Amino acid sequence: MNKQIILLIGGPSSGKTTLINHLEEEGYICYPEISREVTLKAREKGIDHLFLEDPLLFSELLLEGRINQFEQANKEAQTVFIDRGIPDVVAYMDFIGDTYSEKFNEACIKYKYDKVFLLPPWEEIYTSDTVRYESYEEAMQIHDFLVNTYSRYGYDLIEVPKVSVENRYQFIIDHL
């Protein structure tokens, strides 16, 4: 298999992290979602919900982190799986109706992933916590923004079926 940068996207609590963890257990190089890291670092500075309090700053930090992930993945000798990508930042900004600079669009055009797997909303596994504040209804709306944003940047999304993590893993491997 040729080296690829593969992206897993989907709304909150659609099973991305569980799938990334499984891919890692199977020996693949995987990069985790970085928004939790950004949120937790902000909390250490006394900002409870950076995304809610300063969505543009949060998005700029995410954009920087996701560009760094892409560049690091590009240096790897083998296929890399990444939990969420650069266009996710634009999708979320569009979801909340916030404005952003052209650098967000430019980054989406410059950094291209080889394949994008979409995990659809899945109510049976949906959970929220202190970092994931969205309701299931909002998760479904975010899903639509993700589909529209990635399609706008020319990606053909491969929808992963709602099956066990082992079967989701095999589906992805079969579609590489």
UniProtKB/TrEMBL annotation:
Transmembrane segments: none annotated. Residues 6-168 form the NadR/Ttd14 AAA domain. GO terms for molecular function: ATP binding. The keyword Magnesium does not apply. Keywords: ATP-binding, Nucleotide-binding. SUPFAM superfamilies: P-loop containing nucleoside triphosphate hydrolases (SSF52540). It holds the Pfam family AAA_28. The keyword ATP-binding applies. This is ATP-binding protein. It comes from Flavobacterium nakdongensis.
